[in-house]
Write a structure and sequence with these properties.
By secondary structure, this protein is mainly α. It contains 5 helices and no strands.
Length: 94
């Protein structure tokens, strides 16, 4: 069955919604959402609160919701890193 989807590429409003002029608002909204999530707020209601406060478009709300996380989630997702000298193959490479 052939692929009949017609949407390809960015949304026509993306340059306005996610361009350099929107970055400060998106950063601040993401930081506020992360702060709320770290304090136990429900993700849906916290995103609604932040989206309303910063008057975010629906596409911007989705992006902010995907970019934000609680402090605990961030700490759990950071992989422990070993120094390069601990890897066995680094002894043979020069």
């Amino acid at each position: 069955m052939p692929d009949t989807r017609t949407h390809r590429g960015p949304h026509p409003e993306d340059p306005h919604l996610f361009g350099p002029a929107a970055w400060p608002v998106l950063r601040e909204a993401t930081a506020d959402l992360s702060w709320l999530l770290s304090r136990g707020y429900a993700p849906g209601s916290a995103l609604k609160l932040v989206g309303d406060r910063y008057q975010l478009d629906a596409r911007q709300r989705v992006a902010v919701g995907r970019a934000a996380c609680s402090d605990a989630d961030r700490a759990n997702s950071v992989c422990p890193r070993l120094p390069a000298k601990r890897w066995p193959w680094t002894d043979t490479m020069s």
